[in-house]
Structure prediction request, 183 residues.
Amino acid sequence: MKRALIAAVLAALLLASCGAEGQAGSLDADAASPGAETEDSKTGEAMNSIFSEYPNVKISGIDVSSLNDAELALLRTQAAYCQAMTDADVGALRALVAEDTVFVHMSGRQQTREEYFADIADGSLRYYTIGIADPVIRIDGSKGSITFTSVLNASAYGARGTYRMKGTHYYELRGGSWIAVNK
Prediction:
């Protein structure tokens, strides 16, 4: 029961992050950590060079050579956001998430951006690695979204686990940069 509650909290937090409005998918507390996932050898080399600055983020299930510049920029922004979460880098998170973002947890509890970032900063929520599996990127003008399965290795209020969940994160192009927003 306690593990299921923690899984629900982590799922809600990750799906709420980036202004995400997603559906909680299958939560698998025994899933492999992102580092244990394998990559397609054809795309792995390109991905390693493009995303090497995000050591705690593992992207799999996408051929990055098939992405256009806007799609690649949006995927890089998602990776930067996930890396900032694992680094507990609230300054970077502030630059990546719109000020008016409201995080809504599965319980219905709502947090402002700063309340959520405070939980990350004080260690109440600790993200170790985040996998971005099978991302589907959609861009329509200045709006974008990424739907993917997250493989989240994290600790919520002292309980650690690895969880898989599917969700969608929404973005808006502002001043030439992708910013996470609520849908």
